[in-house]
């Protein structure tokens, strides 16, 4: 028998321990990451987030975290009828007892009652753990499909591990300048995001500054006095963990991440996207980082041409509630 308690009442250490028992060899969980994705996310739906406790042993048997857009940030909104099953995990010792089904039912019921019509597995804005269902074999995919979830595509993480003696190539453009953003240019970057990339990227950029960002995580491209593109770069000193450096405990040396990136639509097709990515990579490597991840991309071939290899795959699933 199990009893269900609100996820907010569960100690993060217990959730992290369960996670690491089940997934830690591939996706090592840190308290900082779990705190960022759950406790510090204003989009957590408490009514849909639960932990299952085995009554005979008082062990944590599993948990589920549900989210919907609820963060009252001025000028930014997301569809009110979309929600997310951010995480659902049951310990191996307790599988086959219907605990996962009960956790999922509680999460889906709360989402429906909150006005959500479609639930996605993961991909819950930028404080997500996964962008979809990680490729860990067919069992999890089959289980969610049996609950009515359907695949809608896939995303990939790519990795390249540079030799420390490999040359660092910073692209040089005749008609554009690439550099790191200054802290006093916050308003300029936010205006660019609002005009060209409203939604997720604007949201994550504004939270970046609120978490103490200084600008060093943004590579920008300019033509004259016009900002025409950006690329996010991340390392251990970044104020927020981003998905491309989530799993850095797997590496002996520091892990860096590149992405997202975007170019003003009026300047696309000129090779600027590849140039700003190469610049971001060069800037990370100049900081002494030789392990670099490109995360959650649907265009793996673009980065494979730069020597990156497929590292992780995530299947995107959704269900009409």
In short:
27% of the residues lie in helices and 29% in strands. It has two domains: 2-129, Aminopeptidase; 159-313, Aminopeptidase (3-Layer(aba) Sandwich), CATH 3.40.630.30. Strands 1, 2, 3, 4, 5, 6, 7, 8, 9, 10, 11, 12 and 13 form a 13-stranded mixed β-sheet that branches.
* SSE order: EHHEEEHEEHEEHHEEEHEHE
Quickly count the domains: 2
Strand content: 25-35%
Q: What is the CATH domain class of the largest domain?
A: Alpha Beta
CATH topology of the largest domain: Aminopeptidase
Give me the number of helical elements. Answer: 8
Mean model confidence by pLDDT: 96
**CATH-defined architecture of the largest domain:** 3-Layer(aba) Sandwich
**Largest sheet entry:** 13 strands, mixed
Give the number of DSSP strands: 13
Low-confidence stretches: none
What is the gyration radius calculated from CA atoms? 20 Å
Helix content: 25-40%
SS class:
alpha+beta
Shape: globular
CATH-assigned homologous superfamily of the largest domain: Gcn5-related N-acetyltransferase (GNAT)
N-end to C-end Cα span: 28 Å
């Amino acid at each position: 028998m199990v009893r269900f308690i609100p996820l907010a009442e569960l100690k993060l250490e217990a959730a992290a321990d369960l996670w690491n028992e089940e997934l830690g060899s591939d996706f090592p969980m840190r308290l900082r990451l779990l705190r960022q994705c759950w406790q510090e996310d204003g989009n957590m739906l408490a009514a849909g987030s639960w932990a299952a406790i085995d009554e005979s042993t008082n062990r944590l048997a599993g948990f589920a975290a549900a989210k919907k857009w609820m963060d009252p940030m001025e000028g930014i909104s997301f569809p009110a009828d979309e929600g997310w099953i951010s995480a659902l995990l049951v310990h191996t010792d307790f599988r086959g007892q219907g605990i996962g089904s009960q956790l999922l039912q509680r999460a889906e019921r709360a989402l429906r009652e909150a006005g959500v019509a479609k639930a996605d597995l993961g991909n819950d804005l930028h404080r997500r753990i996964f962008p979809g269902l990680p490729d860990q074999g067919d069992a999890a995919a089959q289980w969610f499909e049996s609950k009515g979830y359907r695949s809608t595509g896939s995303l990939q993480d790519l990795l390249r591990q540079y030799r420390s003696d490999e040359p660092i190539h910073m692209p040089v453009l005749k008609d554009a300048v690439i550099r790191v953003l200054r802290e006093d240019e916050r308003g300029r970057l936010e205006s660019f995001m609002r005009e060209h990339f409203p939604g997720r990227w604007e949201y994550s950029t504004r939270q970046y500054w609120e978490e103490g960002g200084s600008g060093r995580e943004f590579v920008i491209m300019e033509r004259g006095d016009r900002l025409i593109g950006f690329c996010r770069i991340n390392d251990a000193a970044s104020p927020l963990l981003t998905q491309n450096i989530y799993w850095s405990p797997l590496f002996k040396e520091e892990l860096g991440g590149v992405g997202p990136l975007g170019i003003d639509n009026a300047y696309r097709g000129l090779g600027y996207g590849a140039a700003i990515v190469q610049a971001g990579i060069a800037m990370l490597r100049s900081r002494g980082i030789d392990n670099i991840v490109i995360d959650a991309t649907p265009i793996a071939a673009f980065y494979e041409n730069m020597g990156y290899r497929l590292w992780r795959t995530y299947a995107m699933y959704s269900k009409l509630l």
